[in-house]
Amino acid sequence: QLQLVESGGGLVQPGGSLRLSCTASEFTLEDYVIGWFRQAPGKEREGVSCISVRGFSTDYADSVKGRFTISRDNAKNTVYLQMNSLKPEDTAVYYCAARTGTTVQSMCLIRDLSLMHAWGEGTLVTVSS
Predict the structure, then answer these.
(1) How far, rounded to the nearest angstrom, does the alpha carbon of residue 89 sit from its chain's CA centroid?
(2) Contact 81, 88 (CB under 8 A)
(3) Percent of the chain with pLDDT strictly greater than 70
(4) Given a cut of 90, is residue 86 above it in pLDDT?
(5) Distances (CA, A) of 20 to 6, 42, 90, 106
(6) I want to staple 113 with a disulfide (CB 3.0 to 4.6 A). Which of 60, 62, 106, 119 is the partner?
(7) Are the CB atoms for 58 and 47 separated by under 8 Å?
(8) Residue 113 phi/psi, 5° resolution?
(9) Residues 6 or more apart in contact with residue 37 via CB below 8 angstroms
(10) Residue 13 contacts by C-beta under 8 Å, 6 or more apart in sequence?
(11) pLDDT given for residue 52 in this prediction
């Protein structure tokens, strides 16, 4: 399994912002569709946002539309998730994953990370006052 590394999680107050980063040291991300997924305690993992190889196509869960923005910088081998107007219900472990040969819509529907070509160990986001 190829490894991704997430960073940027932490504790933030409701209404605050965080930016998550996803990078890889052993391979280049530019050939992969990248997705951000999250899993809250007691809940199923869900797709949050996905971005195409060149960044021209994106997909978002309805619950984060207008608040989260996914982007990628292939020169830096990094994908970002800018999260604004955070809510307590955004509290979860956030994972990034990579897969080839898929669309952003299909990518975001995958819940089993073992179906990905690479994934990370996750970063915890806690939204609380």
Answers:
(1) 16
(2) no
(3) 100
(4) yes
(5) 7, 23, 13, 22
(6) 119
(7) no
(8) -65, -20
(9) 45, 46, 47, 48, 94, 95, 96, 97, 111, 113
(10) 127, 128, 129
(11) 96
Rg of the chain (C-alpha set):
13
Q: Give the model confidence (pLDDT) of 50-67 as tens digits.
A: 999 999 999 999 999 999
Question: What does the pLDDT look like over 1-39, one tens digit per residue?
Answer: 789 999 999 999 999 999 999 999 899 999 999 999 999
CA distance linking residue 100 with residue 116, whole number of Å: 8
Indicate if the pLDDT at residue 69 is higher than 80: yes
Any idea what DSSP says for residue 120?
-
- Our measurement of the distance from residue 49's CA atom to the centroid of its chain's CA atoms, rounded to an integer in Å, reads 6
With beta carbons less than 8 A apart as the criterion, state whether 99 and 65 touch: no
**Contact between residue 6 and residue 95 where contact means Cβ atoms under 8 Å apart:** yes
- Which residues lie closer than 8 Å to 98 by C-beta, 6 or more apart? 2, 4, 24, 29, 32, 33, 34, 35, 116, 117, 118, 119
Tokens 């897969």: give the residue.
Answer: 99
Structure tokens at 18: 């965080």
